[in-house]
Amino acid sequence: MNFVARTTCMIILAITANVGYAKTFKYEITNVHSSEGYEVKYPGLELNNIKSATLTVNKDPLLPDWQLSSLEITFNTAAKLTATGFKKVSYNTYRAVVNDVWVFRQLIIDVTETDLNIYQNPFVNVKVSVSEKYAFNTPELDSQGHELFHAGGAMRDISPIKIVDIASIVLDGKRVNFSLRERPGILVLGANGPEQIRKEGFLVDVLWMGKGQKTISLYASSLESFAELDALALLIEERDGDFGTKEQVMSVKYKDVNGSERVTFPTPIRPLLESVYGTTMQ
Q1: FRET partner for 219 with CA separation of 20 to 30 A, picked from 78, 143, 191, 254?
Q2: What is the secondary structure of 25-90 as a DSSP string?
Q3: In tens digits, what is the pLDDT along the chain, a chain of 282 residues?
């Protein structure tokens, strides 16, 4: 291999190592509500009784924006609607076109009121319209058409959970096992309402023998790129506490959006556990 070829190969390997790999996220639209439009109706076609709706989203490190890969909506009394090939037409709208659905030649699918670049955007709206065009090669330039139905709801991440590291300690005479999830997320504590707490961070599943299973969250910076972080390892160490005591602390080693390894600020373990298990005996 000559010098130029070796150099080119090394550059490609360096770029590949730094940018990481494409990620796929799957979201369920929960508490979905829907209603039919007033402009277009077809006898016997009921589209206001949605059974489920899911979004598949991709993040390619070589591209600046998240890509909406697909939308799938199932109905109680109508055939499934599947849309792919979405294009981002504004900061909060993604559009696709589906041909030959139900009795229509062409439908325009707009996923609106959400920016997938923002981590864990909680809500999304879907508007489905009937296109009046015979050729639709550039959907981002066309008008919305006549509304057939629209739907909306809260987004919930249902992507498969991958455990990247485990660790254990003994606390109050009982073993505590920790399992670190690869992807950050939002830990919701309490019922809906003003007292509900939402903690963004790296999620760690906990099994405390004799006390049950819970999940804790360790905060990291760069929340605008939170979903692009990759957890690598759990770090547990003992350090000096107050009044001459010892305490165990936990941190997470992770890879940031640039491929650099970083570590979260060490957090005392007992208060972390008490935040989900309640006050414990020392």
Answers
A1: 191
A2: EEEEEEEEEEEE-SS---TT---S-EEEEEEEEEE-TTSSS-EEEEEEEEESSS--EEEE--EEEE
A3: 554 444 444 444 444 444 456 778 888 988 888 888 766 777 888 888 899 999 998 877 677 677 889 999 999 989 999 999 999 888 788 999 999 999 988 899 999 866 565 555 568 899 999 887 644 455 555 566 788 999 998 888 888 889 999 999 999 999 999 999 988 877 776 655 555 566 778 999 999 999 999 999 888 765 555 667 889 999 999 888 777 778 899 999 998 877 889 999 999 999 999 988 987 555
Q: Which residue has the tokens 């709206």?
A: 125
Contact 206, 176 (CB under 8 A): yes
Alpha-carbon distance 58 to 94, whole Å? 13
> Tokens for 192?
């809906």
Which tokens hold the place of 197? 């707490």
Q: What is the 3-state secondary structure (H, E, C) of 111-175?
A: EECCCCCCCCCCEEEEEEEECCCCCCCCHHHCCCCEEEEEEEEEEEECCCCCEEEEEEEEECCEE
Question: Tell me, what amino acid is at 71?
Answer: L
CB 276 within 8 A of CB 264: no
237 within 8 A of 248, measured Cβ to Cβ:
yes
**How many Å is the maximal CA-CA distance in the chain?**
78
